[in-house]
Amino acid sequence: MPSAAPRKRLRTPPPAAAALDSASPRTDASCPSDDEPNELRLELRRPNSPPKPRAAAFPTDGMSAEAIKQHKAQRRREQVRAASRRCRDRQRKETEDLRAKVFQLEEFIAHTMHTHEWELRQQQQRVQALERENEVLAQQLAAATAHAQVDTIEPVPLGTPVKLEDSALPDDIVHCITDDIPRQWSRELVYHAVEDTTRQLVAMLESEVEPVKSPIIFGWQFDFWCEGDKYYGRNRKFFPGVSALELGKRMQAVDPQRYMETFPEVHKMEVLQVFDENVLVMRLVKALPGKTFTQSVNARFLAAAAPPTGSTSRWVYADRTIDEPTDGEFALENECNGYVFEDTEQELPDGSRVQGCLAQGVGEFESGGLECSVLLEELAKAFSSVVIRWEGLFINDFIADDADGFADMVLDL
Length: 413
Description:
Layout: H1 65-146, H2 171-180, H3 187-205, E1 216-217, E2 220-227, E3 230-240, H4 244-253, H5 256-262, E4 266-276, E5 279-287, E6 293-305, E7 313-323, E8 331-332, E9 336-347, E10 353-366, H6 372-394
Parallel strand pairs: 6-8
Antiparallel strand pairs: 1-2, 2-3, 3-10, 4-5, 5-6, 6-7, 7-9, 9-10
């Protein structure tokens, strides 16, 4: 069997001595140094992409080797400075963005903590008042028991006629009996309140008054202002993938106990009269920002209103005080506030448009003799926490677990 021919090996001739740079520690001519021009570097091009035009080579005619070397070093320093400047600009922008996010988080945390502390103080004051009332009642009961006289009951023979005294019932028993009769409110009164409240809330929502404060917190735009002895607040945010009527029905169908757990400033919710599925009368006991617990008899309703330009429908879910509770346990609060939901369309940053609901809260409140500036400050602090809890109860709880992340997207107005 013939022997295989020996393989030929190709040897690369060593580079010329003039091609080696004493300042570069390379051992292979295929590895360019940092001081060599960019045209020696290999560029990765995408398939079918046109070749990038090369920069004109620096003319080296008439220049010494030292001058060429200095020019290359100068150009390298300029490239390093430009890259360093771009890096600093990018870091500066990232730092500014992080500072803005940290500021928003700190503001939200501070508002939430302040609201919780204020709610805790209100509850402690209420507990102390009840304890004092309990002590007074216990003392009165002890005094009445000590002075009570028990009459001796003499046995009466069987068959002896018993004479019944025709006397009036005690006043306290009559008072208790009359209080047990539920009070009814006329349909005309309640439906007039519905129409008037809808008109007032829409007017407050579209008011062009210059607000005193207009913060933006987590996508919610807030406006606060004063007029005489009343102060006003409104806020708004767009939610995609939900309709105005659907949001109104969610608020209408929420369990009262769950609502009070989410909003502990609401102390009691008691339905007194129901007209239909969208209109009822209820007693509310709650603590508005900057005030102690107050109460009112409100008409709570969900009603349609004429939509504005650019909207297909508008629904109002609101409370309006129509009467004062008779027990006198808390002071009266005259309320006129609620939410206005509008079906509308918003444009996304990529130019596409999405259907959704613009949720807008609006309300008119009485100052009760307090400084409006103080109440506005309390309102601004409390509302930032209220809207986040509202969003969690009526928006986030209805997002499916397998949603693709689009449902919880929010747009800043």
